[in-house]
Structure formats: structure tokens, C-alpha cells
Amino acid sequence: MSNTTVHAPYLIIGGGMTGAAAAIGIREIDPSGKIIMISAETSPPYDRPPLSKKLWDGKRTVGQIVAPLPGDVELHLGRHVTALNPDTREVTDDLGEVYTYDRLLLATGGTPRRLPFGGDAVNYYRTIADYRALREDVANGASFVVIGGGFIGSELAASLRKQGSHVVMVFPDDGIANRVFPPDMADYLNNYYREHGVQVLNRENVVGIEADDGWAVVVTDIGTRLTTDRVVAGIGIIPSVDLAREAGLAVGNGIIVDEFLRTARPEIYAAGDVADYPDPALGIRRRVEHADAARAMGRVAGRNMAGAAESYRYLPLFYSDLFELGYEAVGLCDTRLEMVEDWQERFRKGVIYYMKDGRVAGVLLMDIWDRTDEGRALIESGETYTAEQLIGRIR
């Protein structure tokens, strides 16, 4: 076990897109200050969205998803941070190595939600290692049960089916992407997936996974039993806040930060999937798990660590590919809000506006590309709109 202590002006815990963007942000202000990045993963930082999309259709290779990173960043891979002492500005990893810092970024992301059963039989899809394991399963002709109908579940089911695999989706909601799309469109997506050869079992909860002579048997609450080669779960993540909580930092939906992405300890910042931050355009605190947010927030955090004083005010976009359907969206796209639908081709091409108190809170663009800036402008304006004023506004 190592007993060494190393010091860096900038210490980043987390080796994902947020940490990589922070290192770039630091270098934009400070060209030479030492940066150390500690990551639990054994791979250098990489973009996560292609894991469920572009790696499967050949639009990206594993080598092409490596995230940009200044060449002088000192990477400590395969390390888990076990303790953070804000008073002494010390961090300890699982090998006993101690790191001291002037500025610290918590870019710890999140860990997949896990089922209380199934053990190692379930692939909780999040890393390159998970992708490689699934690729090998596909090459071996495996069948799949995908648990979850949200972003990861819907994208993975489509990607696996396009590889020719037998795929069953199981989820408790009424429809695919139920929290993003209006009920009638979510129902349309159920049938759309079925037309593409995916068996869709909506309104069913998985209550058990059994082993049976090399197979996995997925059991639902209504008694359905699905025998399959592999089980993949895309049921969301839990923000990794334990380190911050144990260090006495305030935690809400994530690690609570101010507009400059600082915690209550001004030398400690948090950004990315783990940050609970104030969104001035929407007038709420929120936590965002999308790649665009990780990059933008990480960069601002890095710049501020190096001496800038920039408010994080960016409205990130997110996107998804569902077989031939695709969309980009910005803001708060949540079906619990009032929705205004403006279809050019019903459920295939058009705009959904998500309204809160008469103002636009989110904009989803189905098969309408490179118009998210117009959506941002509507949200940031803070003006009230009627449904009639929005119809035909973005084409």
C-alpha cells in the first residue's frame, strides 16, 4: 500500500466528460498549473452517448469517442476515492495514496440503479466495459431482455434489434419514453417498436430474475416469465454524493452548488450528473444527466477553479435515436407540464412545447435539426405564449 502524498493546484475526482471538460477549462485560464484526475474507470475519459447509439450503427468507433483532454493531465485510473477532508484539503484513495489540493472538483457522476435481485446476471449498462460485454453477447447470438423504457432502455433496445438480436423490453410505464412524450405518442412508440420486431411489455414490473440451466428467467408482477441469454437494465442512475455528504457538504438532489458551481466550501466545486444547481432560465434548481450539460458545466467549473468568475447559465440540449426516429430537445421536457403539440407529420416530424405558467419551459424537436437555439430563446425570454402563438413558430 502506498503512503505517498502528492499535491496539485487542481484535483478532479471523476474521469468522465465533466472532468475532461474541466481540465480544458482550467487550461484556458491557467496554462501550466498541475492537474490530477482520479477515476474509478480504467479507461481515459470518453463520451457516453455513443455507447447506446453511434457505436452500434458504425458512426463511431471506440477510439473516436475518447474525450479531448490536455496532454499534461496526470491520470490516476482504476482508483476509488475513499475519503475527503475539506479542512486539511486532503483526499485519500483506495491504495492509501493521499492527494492535497488548492481547488477540487467533484465530478463523480452517478451509479446505475440496481435491482434487489439478479446479481451479476444483469448488465447495468453505463461503461465501455459494459458495451464490450454486450457486443460480445451480440456476436454470440444472444437474446436480450431490456429492463426500462427511458433513454437508455429505448436506445439500447433499438440498437440491439438493429443488430438482428431478439429483444424484449419490459417497463412499468404506459409507454416508451413516458416522461418525455405525450401519452398518445408514447403509445405510438410502443407499436412502432413492435413493428420493428421488439417485443414490448409495458405496464409490467420485473419482480425477480432466476437462473435456469445457463439461462436467465425474468419474472414480472403479472406472472410473465421470459427466458433469455442476457438481461440489460437501463433504469436510471443515482448521483454519487456519498463522498460529499461524508465530508459535510450540502446534498439535495445532488451536491448543492451556487451559480459558479461552488459548494459551501468555495475551494470545492461540483459539476455534471452529480450537481444540483440553480437554472436561471427556468427559475428552479435541477440536476441534469445529459452529455451537453456535462461538457458545458465542466468547462465553466474548470475556468472558475482557475480564477474566472463565470455564472453557469447554459441550457443544455439532449437528443435520442429510436430506430429511424430522432429528436433534439432543450429545457425541461416533462409530461407533467402542459404540452402544445405542433406536428407536420404526426409523431414523426414536429415540435412539442412544454409550458409552465404560460411560459415555455422546454422544446422538443422531432426530426427538426439545428433549431435548438430558437428553443432556447423562447425559454430564456420568459415571455408568456398562447398555443396559437407557438403553432408554426419553429419549422
Describe this structure in words.
There is one protein chain. The protein is α/β, with parallel strands linked by helices and 395 residues long. It folds into 3 domains: 5-111 and 238-305, FAD/NAD(P)-binding domain, CATH 3.50.50.60; 114-233, 3-Layer(bba) Sandwich (FAD/NAD(P)-binding domain); 324-390, 2-Layer Sandwich (Enolase-like, domain 1). 21% of the residues lie in helices and 32% in strands. It contains 8 helices and 25 strands. α1 (17-29) packs parallel to α6. The chain is globular and about 60 Å long. It starts with a strand and ends in a 5-residue tail after the last helix. The mean pLDDT is 96.
Superfamily at the CATH H level of the largest domain?
Answer: FAD/NAD(P)-binding domain
- The separation of the N and C termini measures 61 Å
CATH uppermost class of the largest domain: Alpha Beta
Helix content: 10-25%
Q: How many distinct beta strands? A: 25
Query: pLDDT under 50 segments (min length 5)?
Result: none
Describe the protein's topology.
Blueprint: E1 5-13, H1 17-29, E2 35-39, E3 74-77, E4 81-85, E5 90-93, E6 98-106, E7 110-112, E8 122-124, H2 128-139, E9 144-147, H3 151-162, E10 167-170, H4 183-195, E11 199-201, E12 206-212, E13 215-220, E14 225-228, E15 230-233, E16 237-239, H5 242-246, E17 255-256, E18 268-270, E19 275-279, E20 284-286, H6 291-305, E21 317-322, E22 325-331, E23 338-345, E24 349-356, E25 359-366, H7 372-381, H8 387-390
Parallel strand pairs: 1-2, 1-6, 2-3, 6-18, 8-15, 9-10, 9-15, 10-11, 17-19
Antiparallel strand pairs: 4-5, 5-6, 7-16, 12-13, 13-14, 19-20, 21-22, 22-25, 23-24, 24-25
Helix pairs in contact: 1-6
